[in-house]
Amino acid sequence: MKPCLGGIYFLIKDGECVYVGQSNDIYRRISEHRTGTPKSRGAPKDFDSWEFIEEYSQERKDQLEYLLIRMINPKLNKDPHMWATTYQLEDSLNTMAECVGQAENTLNFVKRFNRLEEELKQRKICEKLSELFKKGDI
């Protein structure tokens, strides 16, 4: 049995996100969407793959789900505007900004790592050339 995995999930059909949802047990919820249950409004959803973002804070799941539905506008989701009175847009934007900030930090780290890696390669080439020069092979 797979462990419970909480977060936001995306149902995908032919490369297009058709549904965004959240659950404290994503594997169970995906299974419900495949088979159709009262919680998934009866009929199975038509999708060929799925992805997820792991998240356990209910507040963050609510905010991210709301924003992602607004941004992606999946055809199988209800109108997210109905939630506008429930969730503060400002809090949701702050959460998204925090996620973007984390992504930018990761990207900057990767860029610094790539520059360091390139610098080390160049240094090794210089060391090799210096070695060959000392041996008189150049």
Indicate the radius of gyration in whole angstroms: 24 Å
Strand content: 15-25%
Within the CATH hierarchy, at the fold level, what is the topology of the largest domain? GIY-YIG endonuclease
Would you tell me the structural class of the helices and strands? Answer: alpha+beta
**Mind describing the biggest β-sheet?**
3 strands, antiparallel
SSE string, helices as H and strands as E: EEHEHH
Commentary on this structure:
By secondary structure, the protein is α+β, with helices and mostly antiparallel strands. It folds into two domains: 81 residues, GIY-YIG endonuclease, CATH 3.40.1440; 51 residues. Helix content is 52%, strand content 15%. It has three helices and three strands. It has a three-stranded antiparallel β-sheet, sandwiched between helices. Strand 1 and strand 2 form a beta hairpin. Helix 2 crosses helix 3. The radius of gyration is 24 Å and the shape is elongated. The N and C termini lie far apart (64 Å). The model has no long low-confidence stretch (mean pLDDT 78).
